[in-house]
């Protein structure tokens, strides 16, 4: 297996979840390949599309990248109390290609948002989805109030208590993937 991959479920070019997952990736000892899902041109899922055209090459490419990874760090964003339709679409394609596309893959699940709930509803959904698709949820962490708690310019957390929580979460993940 290759390196750890990390990505956010967002398609925003200014995604705070991408910033967050990038920051977390830099805290690990092992190399992490931070990718953007938008680098994979994946159309909107539809059963008619699948039956008529089949699986897009970009779905197969993302699937292969996930399968070859040692582990995954995933930061989900939230739209109106749910995962974004963009992220759900990507998961729909991958799960149609292979229902257990995350089979035995160690996952660090995280999220952040401008609000105090840290995209908790989206993270709850993703926790269930990770297990449904065969992944091993190692740890889950939500960073509330992104702009208040994270300094984007200096790439650091402002809150010492949150920093301790992040270190503990990353330690759990690191221990689980060291084999």
TrEMBL record:
GO terms for molecular function: oxidoreductase activity. Keywords: Oxidoreductase. It holds the Pfam family FMN_red. It is an enzyme of class 1 (oxidoreductase). Gene3D superfamilies: 3.40.50.360. The keyword Oxidoreductase applies. Residues 4-126 form the NADPH-dependent FMN reductase-like domain. It comes from the Bacteria. Its EC number is 1.-.-.-. This is NADPH-dependent FMN reductase. It comes from Mesonia sediminis.
């Amino acid at each position: 297996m290759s390196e750890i991959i990390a990505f956010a479920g967002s398609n925003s070019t200014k995604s705070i979840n991408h910033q967050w997952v990038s920051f977390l990736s830099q805290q690990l000892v092992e190399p992490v390949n931070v990718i953007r899902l938008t680098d994979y041109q994946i159309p909107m899922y539809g059963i008619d599309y699948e039956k008529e055209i089949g699986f897009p090459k970009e779905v197969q490419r993302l699937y292969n990248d996930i399968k070859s990874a040692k582990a995954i760090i995933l930061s989900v964003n939230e739209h109106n109390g749910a995962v974004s339709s963009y992220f759900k679409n990507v998961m729909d394609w991958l799960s149609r290609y292979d229902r257990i596309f995350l089979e035995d893959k160690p996952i660090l699940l995280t999220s952040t948002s401008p609000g105090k709930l840290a995209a908790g509803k989206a993270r709850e959904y993703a926790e269930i989805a990770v297990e449904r698709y065969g992944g091993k949820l190692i740890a889950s962490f939500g960073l509330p109030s992104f702009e208040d708690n994270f300094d984007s310019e200096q790439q650091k957390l402002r809150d010492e208590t949150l920093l301790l929580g992040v270190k503990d979460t990353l330690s759990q993940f690191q221990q689980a993937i060291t084999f």
